[in-house]
Amino acid sequence: MLINFDRTVAYRCGSCGEITYGDFSLFELSGGKGLSVECSCGHSVLKILPENKTGFKVCVSCLVCDEMHTFSLPFQTLAKKECTEFACPTALVGLVFIGKEAAVKKAVMNNESYVQEVISSCGLNHTGKNGITMLKALDKIQDLSDNESLFCECGSNLIDVEIHEEDIRLECCLCGSSITISADSIRGSNFSHLDKLVIPSKQ
Questions:
Q1: Whether the Cβ atoms of residue 86 and residue 94 lie closer than 8 Å to each other
Q2: 159 or 136: whose pLDDT is higher?
Q3: N- or C-end of the chain: fewer Cβ atoms within 10 A?
Q4: How confident is the model at residue 187 (pLDDT cuts 50, 70, 90)?
Q5: Is 66 left (phi over 0), alpha (psi -120 to 50) or beta?
Q6: Which helix (H) or strand (E) holds 131?
């Protein structure tokens, strides 16, 4: 029986948002060695490093929350499973796909279709860094609204949301006050941990 030791890894770059592919052999991870896969943009690197005697850790910078995520990958899983997927813990966005080439490419395609469908329904037209950031922001805004923690200083909790490629605009339906939050500020702040969001009133 012919055993295939070749594997493919794909990850979503934490800087440009594009999917980067890399190929390697299981032998490259033997003897406590690791490997790195750099995005063509030059601003992110995925690392697969020894974690213990029976497995590895996969380290990748997340474009959704701008944090470094570490996932455990047992050697048996890497050797036997067609494809293993890892997602951002705070959003249903696939970050890493690792396994046999055909299965990895299929998993990436399925995830991209899902993300594109959700992003398109929000009025955006790409799955790059800002598009996925906006998905996360919308989820947080919905959560704040559901908990009555999104409101205007005038007392209204009727807030209109406009989504753009570079930012999100929140406008009070009662007094017209608004705030604009850029994608960069969403990524670079504690936006996902806000317990309330208040729009300063014009009045």
A1: yes
A2: 159
A3: N
A4: confident
A5: left
A6: helix 129-146
CA distance 48 to 60: 9
The backbone torsions φ and ψ at residue 172, rounded to the nearest 5 degrees and listed phi first, read -70, 125
* 35-44 contacts, C-beta under 8 A, 24 or more apart: 37/9, 37/11, 39/13, 39/15, 41/13, 41/15, 41/16, 43/13, 43/14, 43/15, 43/16, 44/13, 44/14, 44/15, 44/16, 44/20
Q: Read off the DSSP letter of residue 192.
A: G
First-to-final CA distance of the chain? 77
DSSP 7: E
pTM of full prediction above 0.70: yes
Helix axes 129-146, 101-121, angle to 10 degrees: 60
What residues have CB less than 8 Å from 153, skipping those under 6 apart? Answer: 177, 198, 199, 200, 201, 203
Whether 22 and 71 have beta carbons less than 8 Å apart is answered as no
Domains of the chain, by residue range, sit at 6-121, 129-199
